[in-house]
Structures are given as C-alpha cells and as structure tokens.
Design a protein that fits this description.
heterodimer, A: mainly alpha, 9 helices, 0% strand
C-alpha cells in the first residue's frame, strides 16, 4: 500500500469526523463541541466568581467581623475548586483548546502558562498588595513563591522534553515513499506520536494541581482579612486584564 | 523483600521512571532543583518491576517516588508536598539534602 494511498485514507477518515480535527475546525469535529461547552461553563463560573467577590468587597467595606468574612472567603476558595474540576473535564475532551487559552481574553493570553495563570506571578502581585505582613508570613509567602516557581520550571522542562520527543518522532517518520517498510515505519511513528500527544492532558492536570495547592497554601498562611484582600486583589488584576483586552479589541485601526 | 522495596531502601531518594515519560523528566528536574541526587531506575524494559509498583499501590505506577525507603507518591503527590514545604522536609530528614 503506497504512502499516498494511506494519506488519502486518513484524509477521508478525518472528513468523516473520525479523527479529532487538526486545524481546529469547529463544524465537524467532536473537539469543537467540547471547546464550546467549556467556554460556556467558564463564562458561567466567572460570572458566579465575580458575584462572590462583590459580596466580599461589600463585607470588607462594611467592616464585617472576621466570622462573617471567613464564611464568604471560604466560599470563594471552595468555588475555585469548581473551575479546576471543569478544566479537568475540558482537558479530557479537548486538551488543545485548554492549552490555546482561546477561552481567555487576549491580554490574559499574554500570561498564559500551561493552560492558566502562573502561581508565582500571583504571589509576586500579592506581596506588594498585602502589606503589612508579619516576618513569619513574609518568609512563608517567599518560600511559597519559590516553591511554585520551581514546580513551574520543572513542568515547563517536562513540556520541552515532550516537544523535543514529538519532533524526533515525526522526523523519524519521514523518508522516501513506496516501500512497505516505510509504511510500517510511518504507522508506528504516528502511533508513538499519538501516545505522546496523549500525555499533554497530564501536564495540564499537574499545572492546575499546582495552582490549586498554591491557592490553598496561601489561604493557610494569611489571616481571614488578608485572604479577603488577596482574593479581591487577584480578581481586580484579572478584571483589569480583561478590560485591557476589550480596549484593545475596540481600538481604532488605520 | 521484593525488588522494588529493596531498591527503594538503598538510597535516600529513589525514583522509578520510564525514558519515554516526560512527566518523569519534570519530577527529576524538581529534585535536582532542590539539590537532591535521586537514584533513578528506568523500568521501560522491566514489566515485572512496573507490575510490582502497581501491586504496592503506586498509582499511577510511573513516576514512583520513594524518600527514606517510603513511598511518597506520583507526580501529583510530589507537587502537592513541594508546595506546602513537606517535600523539602522529608528530603532533609532522609539526609538526601542538607538545607
């Protein structure tokens, strides 16, 4: 069987929607529905999140007691769990959509790392926004920032190794056509490449695990009042980025 | 004593990996960043070893991280322990690192 015949068969199969679309066409592929469903769920979660943050802002400006603040802060932190669960499902359905960051606004996408935010950057922001912190807290937040940076670097290096490995596999499948040995080689290498692509989901899962753990650890280090300020600051920062995106998209062009 | 437990107890930090596993590469990198020199055992050609890891309850089987002879977990566990500072603590206690 010639290589060109194989390519034609693949093309036909792709058109019948058997393979996940490689060019990101949304019309026929299964992945298109997964992406859309996630975008909608994320939009809903964000609305819900903003509502809770507004409730928190109200409580803070009305000088609510620690008890009342704690209830709202805990509910915001618990609500963060929801988006990580939603993202895990989305990564299973369409890992490339999550990785692309197309579900975020353009300015947010500038800072995208493995399908989400960098915990180390959030912590850098918070150190400036959360003064005064006790010596102990400064040390703990500093350690947390260093740990998240180290974990981010480690995951990034794993991703680079994956990319390298994938490139080598595809390169290994190149060769002259029309020999049965080369067809077998092609199929084998494609199967290996498919296996490697399958591991991407694991990287997103661990990146989100890192985000989740960092948020929880931050919550443990800070007082209730500080946690409230931190959550508000994170939300304000993200809202600014989203506003920047809107300005950018609406900018006058020559 | 089974082979896994035997190998795991020979060095302060031991990681069972596969050469094809890029998440293993991440976990190794993290250990190096912490100044640890873990003993690495690649199980690509060793289906028995991989089964032994599964029988011990390692899930997923690869990477399997042991510190001081005790199973610490896979990638997810290692990252969680690193974030709350316990990974470093365990490495210090097992004398895999000094600070």
């Amino acid at each position: 069987m010639k290589l060109t015949q194989l390519e034609q068969e693949l093309q036909r199969a792709r058109q019948q929607g058997i393979f996940i679309s490689s060019s990101g066409e949304q019309s026929q592929s299964m992945s298109g529905n997964g992406a859309l469903a996630f975008d909608v769920e994320y939009g809903r979660w964000l609305e819900d999140h903003n509502r809770r943050i507004n409730e928190l802002k109200g409580a803070v400006s009305n000088h609510a007691g620690d008890g009342e603040l704690r209830i709202i802060v805990d509910s915001v932190v618990a609500h963060y769990e929801d988006i990580f669960r939603i993202k895990a499902d989305a990564a299973k359905a369409d890992v490339f959509h999550v990785l692309s960051g197309m579900w975020k606004t353009p300015a947010e996408r500038c800072f995208l790392w493995l399908g989400g935010f960098r915990s180390s950057e959030i912590l850098k922001l918070l150190i400036t926004q959360l003064e005064p912190l006790t010596e102990q807290q400064l040390l703990a937040i500093g350690n947390l920032q260093q740990s998240s940076q180290q974990a981010e670097d480690a995951l990034s290096q794993g991703m680079e190794a994956l990319q390298q490995s994938l490139a080598e596999t595809i390169a290994g499948s190149l060769g002259s056509s029309n020999s049965s040995g080369n067809v077998a080689n092609y199929m084998g290498q494609m199967a290996m490449a498919m296996g490697k692509l399958g591991t991407l989901e694991g990287f997103i899962r661990q990146a989100d695990n890192l985000r989740q753990q960092t948020l929880q650890q931050m919550h443990r280090i800070l007082t209730t009042r500080q946690s409230a300020r931190a959550l508000i600051a994170i939300n304000d920062y993200s809202s600014r980025l989203r506003a920047l995106s809107s300005l950018w998209l609406a900018r006058p062009r020559e | 004593m089974d082979r896994v437990t035997h190998l795991a107890s020979k060095k302060a930090a031991v990681i069972f990996t596969k050469s094809s596993c890029c998440m293993c590469h991440s976990i190794k990198t993290l250990f190096y960043e912490l100044g640890a020199s873990p003993e690495i055992h690649e199980v690509d050609q060793d289906a028995d070893m991989e089964k032994a890891l599964q029988r011990l309850g390692c899930n997923p089987a690869i990477p399997a991280v042991f510190i001081g002879g005790k199973y610490v977990g896979s990638a997810r566990d290692v990252i969680s322990l690193h974030v709350d500072g316990s990974l470093k603590q365990k490495l210090i206690e097992a004398k895999a690192i000094w600070f």
